[in-house]
Design brief:
This protein is of the alpha/beta class. It folds into three domains: 2-149, Rossmann fold (3-Layer(aba) Sandwich); 175-450, pyruvate-formate lyase- activating enzyme (Alpha-Beta Horseshoe); 456-512, Nucleic acid-binding proteins (OB fold (Dihydrolipoamide Acetyltransferase, E2P), Beta Barrel), CATH 2.40.50. The protein is built from 15 helices and 21 strands. The protein has helices at residues 25-35, 45-51, 68-76, 94-97, 109-118, 150-153, 197-203, 230-234, 242-254, 290-307, 323-333, 347-352, 359-371, 389-404, 432-450, and strands at 2-6, 21-22, 40-44, 58-62, 82-85, 102-104, 135-136, 176-180, 182-183, 238-239, 259-263, 310-313, 315-316, 337-343, 375-382, 409-414, 456-461, 470-474, 480-483, 494-502, 507-512. The strands form five sheets. The protein has a six-stranded mixed β-sheet. A five-stranded mixed beta barrel has the order 17-18-19-21-20. Helix 10 (290-307) packs parallel to helix 11 (323-333) and helix 11 (323-333) crosses helix 13 (359-371). The radius of gyration is 22 Å and the shape is globular. The protein starts with a strand and ends with a strand. Bound molecules: iron/sulfur cluster. Residues 190, 195, 199-200, 203-206, 217-219, 221 line the site of iron/sulfur cluster (SF4).
Length: 514
């Protein structure tokens, strides 16, 4: 029996946020095991650490860099072959450091399929690992890097049955279940902080539209924004087949899923690779593939209408949003949140950190999407390399402007230097400007939450994570709602509540109607 441990966002072993999120990665691994008729179970790492389960032969862990402490605790409890995957392995040394037998780098499907074929399906690490791409050995050595193509994505189908393993926190009947529609990002611009501008002057790849030339940087700077490892880990964007996505969603809905996130680093990349001759390495030229997006969204809408399921798209790149795109998203996803990365409010800072879009593009996208009936959430990062008094002031200005234009939530993250990125070697320096950016977000979010007072919204009951309290999530997204009631509810029950109190910038209180 295989154990897939979902450690994503578990940190030290106790998830503090994203309690209503079920990511797509572990179900993708489960789909591969089902192809080989291998019995398995998925567990959240917190449940495994608490229950000290035994009886598994092989351990597969999916984690991010921040989850190293939780993974370390879990791996010490396990006897048998252990394989580590997910964004955590972008730091190659982590495989040996955490005592794993093997790691899988970037896209894991091909490597795991070959391992299973060569004997892993019988419960042991094969003797010969020759020819298997994306494998990391405990010494830190990585075999040949390989990226999937759009046509490869069709061979690997995420398991839908596996969703039933998520019956603690989060629970599949109330959580936002991520369904991957497109993988990776087309931003093959490079940050200019730390680059030799003399070499850039000769090269010019970042400023031109030669798609093949944009794949390689003569200075070996990883592609993408300096704080993000997505293009380096997953290559150029690739979209899943529309029928595969819709049949996955239908199967999940049949099992009781009510909230679906159409997942991708940028939803608007969907089908864009079919518009170019060559690798899709330009973040905004050509624009979105309207025909492909429309066919996906039409299918999604018909499932939504038939089964009363709520959909949202994960992220959009602001420079791909124009009037036509906003109208299209508004037609099919009206009333749903939409996530827009602004990151910095300073145009020159945006350029030197490798952003594909300017702050003004983000503000324009927020305005258009709001007017089209969506609910934009804006994202910023403080303490980025290159942050100065002036960039921070501009960021705060843009935060207020994003708020004024109708952003429903302003989220600020602290910069984390990720392995495999251009900023991997940078130290995080939190200064007074960083604190001011973080404070501004809290103030703006509280103001927005106060606007909810007296409003009636539909919420879905969540599993209880504090004795004596009932929590729920707004069906259409929004802050967690603490329910003021003595009555018992079942996870997945939907009810209407009136918001009566703002408890924090992330939590409100609601009184059930009737
Ligand atoms: S690809 Fe590298 S060398 Fe070329 S312009 Fe971009 S950062 Fe400069």
């Amino acid at each position: 029996m295989f154990l897939i441990l979902d450690a994503l966002a578990a940190g030290e072993g106790k998830r503090l946020s994203s309690l209503d999120v079920i990511g797509a990665g572990p179900r993708a691994i489960a789909g591969l095991l089902e192809m080989f008729n291998v019995p398995y179970k998925i567990m959240r790492i917190e449940d495994y650490l608490r229950s000290k389960w035994r009886g598994f032969d092989v351990l597969l862990v999916s984690a991010m860099s921040m989850d190293e402490p939780a993974v370390n605790k879990a791996v010490m409890m396990f006897k048998g072959p252990k394989i580590l995957g997910g964004p955590i392995t972008s730091e190659l040394s982590v495989v040996g450091k955490l005592n794993f037998d093997l790691g899988v780098w970037g896209e894991g499907e091909l490597a795991l399929e070959m391992l299973l074929k060569k004997g892993l399906s019988s419960g042991f690490i094969p003797d010969s690992l020759e020819g298997i791409p994306n494998l990391i050995f405990p010494g830190g050595k990585l075999t040949k890097i390989s990226y999937l193509k759009s046509q490869d994505m069709r061979r690997f189908r995420p398991s839908t049955e596996a969703i039933r393993f998520y019956n603690t926190i989060p629970h599949y009947k109330s959580a936002r279940v991520y369904v991957e529609v497109v993988r990776s990002c087309s931003n093959f611009n490079r940050p200019k902080i730390g680059a030799s501008l003399d070499i850039c002057k000769v090269c010019q790849a970042c400023y031109k539209q030669d798609l093949r030339k944009r794949l390689i940087c003569p200075q070996n700077i990883p592609p993408g924004c300096g704080y993000c490892s997505i293009p380096y880990l997953y290559g150029t964007p690739k979209s899943r087949d529309v029928d595969d996505i819709l049949s996955e969603i239908r199967a999940l809905v049949r099992l009781g899923v009510r909230r679906v996130v159409l997942s991708g680093a940028d939803f608007l990349e969907y089908g864009r690779e079919y518009l170019v001759d060559g690798p899709l390495t330009h973040p905004s030229i050509p624009g979105p593939n309207i025909k492909a997006l429309k066919s996906l969204l039409e299918g999604v809408k018909s499932i939504s209408d038939e089964h009363n399921v709520f959909f949202e798209a994960e992220n959009v790149k602001p420079c791909l949003v124009d009037e036509e795109v906003a109208r299209l998203l508004g037609k099919y996803l009206r009333g749903s949140p939409i996530h827009i990365g602004v990151e910095t409010g300073d145009p020159s800072h945006a350029e030197v950190i490798g952003r594909p879009c300017r702050p003004e593009d983000s503000l324009k996208a927020i305005k258009l999407l709001k007017e089209a009936g969506l609910r934009p959430y804006a994202y910023f990062i403080h303490s980025l390399p290159g942050q100065t008094r002036s960039t921070a002031k501009n960021t705060i200005k843009v935060m207020y402007e994003a708020f004024r234009l109708g952003s429903e939530k302003i989220t600020v993250y602290k910069f984390r230097p990720l392995p495999g990125t251009a900023f991997s070697g940078y130290r995080v320096k939190v200064d007074n400007y960083s604190r001011e950016i973080a404070r501004t977000a809290i103030d703006l979010n509280k103001m927005r939450k106060r606007e909810l007072l007296g409003r009636r919204i539909a919420v879905i009951i969540a599993p209880s994570y504090r004795r004596g309290s009932i929590y729920a999530y707004p069906v259409k997204g929004g802050p967690v709602v603490r329910i003021k009631a003595r009555k018992r509810f079942r996870v997945g029950d939907i009810l209407t509540v009136r918001i009566i109190k703002v408890l924090s910038d992330r939590l409100v209180e609601g009184l059930p109607e009737n």
